[in-house]
Amino acid sequence: MRSFETFSRRKLLKTGGALIVGFSFAGAASARAAAARGDVAGPPDQGEVDSWIAVHADNTATVYFGKCELGQGNTTGLLQITGEELDLDISQMSAMRLDTNVTPNQGATSSSSSIHRGGPPLRAAAAEARQQLLLLASVKLGVQPGSLSVSKGVVSVEGDPTRRTTYGELLGDKKFEVKISGSAPVKPPSRYKLVGQSVRRVDIPDKVRGNYVRAQHLRADNMLHGRVVLPRGQRAFGYGAKPLSIDESSIANIPGARVVRKGDFVGVVAEREWDAVKAARQLKVTWQETPRLPSNAGLYEKMRAAKTTDTVVTDIGDAAKGFQAAAHVAGATYHGPYQGHIPFWPNCALADVGPNGAVVKSSSQDVYSSRAQIAKVLGLPEAKVRVQYYESSGTFGRSCYEDASQAAAILSQAMRRPVRVQFMRWDEHGWDNYGPPHIAEIRAGVDQNGKIVAYEYHGWQHGWTVTSTVSDLALQVKGVERAGGTNSITVNPISTGSMYVIANRRVISHAVPMEGLLRGAALRSPLDLNYSFASEQTIDELATAVKMDPLAFRRQNIADKRWLGVLNAAAEAAKWSPRVSGSSVSGGDVVSGRGIGLGSHHVSYGAAVAEVEVDKRSGVISVKRLYGAMDVGLAVNPGLVENQIIGQMVQSTSRVLKEEVKFDEHGVTSLDWASYPILRFAESPEVVPVVVQRLDEPSTGAGEEVMGATAAAIANAVFDATGVRLREYPMTPERVKAALAGAKVGRA
Amino acid sequence: MAQAIGINVNGEARTVAADLDTPLLYVLMNELQLRGPQFGCGLAQCGSCSVLIDGVETRSCVTPVASVVGKKITTVEGLPALYAQQKGLKETPELHPVQQAFVEVQALHCGACYNGVTIKASELLAKNPKPSDSEIRTAMNGHLCRCGTYPRILQAIKLASARMSGAAR
Predict the structure, then answer these.
(1) Which residue in B35, B45, B153 is closest to A673 by CB distance?
(2) Which residue on chain B is closest to A278 by alpha carbon?
(3) Which listed site, A10, A170, A545, B58, has its alpha carbon 20 to 30 Å from A616?
């Protein structure tokens, strides 16, 4: 069938003659194939239009892509891209949930890649689909494809709108059977109607009406409720959690409660959810001792003393010579702690494992990776495992979703019944794959004219877990650390001074082994808060050293128009008042200040201005207003980007003012929202988001790039208010008071 | 052991099977299959499980089901009907004005906090139809949002307040 059509299409293109080969020949077979979608393990071939788009008889389309909705709105943006090329309205399209038997493997939904890297293949597929539909229409209507125009899936002859057909009539539920050539014409941005518009999110109405099915909502016939049994708070990474004894009689009074053990993994199941909760809480387990952790007090010392693997990330010019030429040098050591993903809802998964295979419904950011991990834990071939994505709550990186999925799968395999596992609050808080801590030793120099002439950044951090807690326990293997291979693990050179013209710049990354510390993984804008917090405070210190306003100083040292664009946009939104920072510190108990900062993640550009108040008596920092500008190239949906700016700025405020994972020598003690406080409603700043729209630039990520800038702007505003630099976050009242007291005795 | 318990949810008398100490949340989720209230912490810290009990915002994750017998439980699913009753409307609107405002302001990110903040905001506006920003911030302070949507939630509540006082004329 395919060769026939390919021939026909070639013939049409060559001769312009009527194409009389009916797509209907493919009808029955294609309809069956469409119905069967999902029966075969994926991933589908990304080179086929059918892997991405299905057109239905009612002139609607289903779109298949491999980036999941995490609450960031990417589904809406990706449908806009598809609809733009296909000339379909948002209301005519729906997105298929991610499913390893159905959707393409576009990798993890991470690094703000949905639009940046997930968009282009979808655009190409949609363009190819449109080209094919126009060919079919040209045959049906008897004119050249160039004489056709499309609006909302209605194809009509230009100049004679009575001659028309629809996508639904042309293809209705049959397959395209067309390969993506990559040469189908895409629209120039100047003709965009849907892309670039702040279309309302497609998921919000159902979320508001309660029709949106979340992972937590899922139930199955004959289902058991499961819970994991882990020590309260994780221990040293690399040493697991070995149950020495399990006293099953301790839950004998709970009806139907059963203990399941696989390797070192322990779980419980019960018919009723409350009984599973009680069983997990009540089960007496004696755990083997694990090596001591350094505790919060000893963390940075241990990291700094570790044998590291060092990488020179950037080495431009000659830093040593640069420092010799400097009139002023600023430098200090900065610290940032472990912080958690800690989704608002702990992770939840439903698994049904039988002898012939497994279906797992969960909230993994990467369904194909999840499938591989579950297959390994269950001892099944990957093709026998199907993972379907159901949205949970915002996860911001690798929270415990793989653990919940694997636990549900293990329990289901053991019980031969579907099992739903809901992590408890202490499981999610205590066994997160935390955003790693970071130590920065930085110095930078400026000449007498206010030109930055030297910059040197050393960063210490450990890497990310490759494996998951539950699989490590079940298979009794040591966790594996990924210590390199991405800018987010080695120090990110973009966030460490790259925005400035600096002739001599060195950035060195010192990889600390994760073993004996806590389990780490990417947390939204991985380590970019740390880099900007250190780097942009240092830049501010140089500005103060040459008695310049920090905005003017940055303008003077930046050449890149896109960095200048976001810097100026944030400053204009804030009606920035120029002065040397810290030059008008008031003597009152409550002092105010403003600060500015820049930051990135991988590609996009972020700038922030913060207005803060500091109560010198209590040490409380109140962030009053934030202004955030982002340049993400072509913003497919500026409304979504505005919302992402707001979310990033509030979350970044939370992280630099409040968040720190606490742990003692035995394990993590941050086990709930009381022991791991986050920013509350009454503490929330006002946020003014600004999208710097660039229609002529490729779309890049929008979910992470203004977080670092925000952290830096707040810290710089605190200095402007108090004349004191905070070099460790979270900037808690205790740390603020200590810094202010230190300043009084001249140690700041 | 589980026993039959009669409760009133969203104006309907329901009989559920549960142990008396079972938190109301588990009954709403599992016995009545409601999608609004959800497990967030089980510790009354976050607001994910909030419902109205006789009009008062209550954390269902720490409220034993036996303690709500004879009381009126309203979940987010029942908010439009409760609003119609409060306002003396003949017809129940599709959405409570707070819910409608959440759509218009595009306040949600993941939407996990939505249940609790909507319940709390409806309680606030029933008592205080025109709250100041500071009154909203204080009233909402027991509800966490991990996505950082507080500014838009504030905006949505103000929009709902304006609409509701307009509707009351």
Answers:
(1) B45
(2) B22
(3) A545
Q: Do A673 and B146 touch (CB under 8 A)?
A: no
pLDDT score, position B168: 44
Cβ burial of A726 (10 Å; 0-12, 13-18, 19+) is buried
Q: Which residues of B touch A648 (CB under 8 A)?
A: 148
Mean pLDDT of all residues in A236-263: 97
Shortest CB distance from B151 goes to which of A200, A424, A684? Answer: A684
Spell out where A632-736 has E strands.
686-691
Tell me whether the CATH fold assigned to A2-201 matches the one assigned to A297-339+434-744. yes
CB contacts of B76 in chain A (<8 Å) are 210
pLDDT classification of B2: cutoffs 50, 70, 90: confident
Strand bridging mode A385-389 / A419-422: unpaired
Domain B3-75 has CATH 3.40.50.150: no
Q: Which CATH superfamily is domain B78-167 in?
A: [2Fe-2S]-binding domain (1.10.150.120)
What residues does each domain of chain B span?
3-75, 78-167
d(CA B70, CA B66): 10
Q: What is the mean pLDDT of chain A?
A: 93
d(CA B138, CA A51): 50
Is the CB of A344 less than 8 angstroms away from the CB of B48? yes
Q: For chains A and B, what is the number of CB pairs under 8 angstroms?
A: 167
Fold of A216-289+347-422: Aldehyde Oxidoreductase; domain 4 (3.30.365)
Q: How far apart are the first and last CA of chain A?
A: 77
Which of A216, A348, A393, A659 should one mutate to test binding to chain B, selecting the residue with the greatest count of B CBs within 10 A? A393
Give the Cα separation of A521 and A486 in Å (integer). Answer: 12
Does the pLDDT at position A575 exceed 80? yes
Predicted confidence (pLDDT) per residue in B5-57, tens digit: 999 999 999 999 999 999 999 999 999 999 999 999 999 999 999 999 999 99
Rounded to whole angstroms, the Cα distance separating A64 from A104 reads 7
ipTM rounded to 2 decimals: 0.97
Residues 6+ apart with CB under 8 A from A721: A585, A591, A592, A593, A612, A613, A614
Tell me the fold of A2-201: Aldehyde Oxidoreductase; domain 4 (3.30.365)
The B residues from 113 to 152 touching A (CB cutoff 8 Å) are 113-114, 137-138, 140-141, 143-152
Rounded to whole angstroms, the Cα distance separating B59 from B52 reads 9
Q: Are A740 and A671 in contact (CB under 8 A)?
A: no
**Over the stretch A694-707, which tens digit does the pLDDT of each residue have?**
999 999 999 999 99
- What is the rounded distance in angstroms from the CA atom of residue A563 to the CA atom of residue A15? 51
Q: Tell me what percent of chain B is helix, strand and coil, each rounded to the nearest 5.
A: 45, 15, 40
Domain at A297-339+434-744: CATH code:
3.30.365.10
Across the interface, of A207, A391, A678, the residue whose CB is closest to B144 is A678
What is the spatial order of strands in the sheet that A93-95 belongs to?
A: A53-55, A61-63, A93-95
Q: Rounded to whole angstroms, how far apart are CA atoms A569 and A579?
A: 18
List the domain boundaries for chain A: 2-201, 216-289+347-422, 297-339+434-744
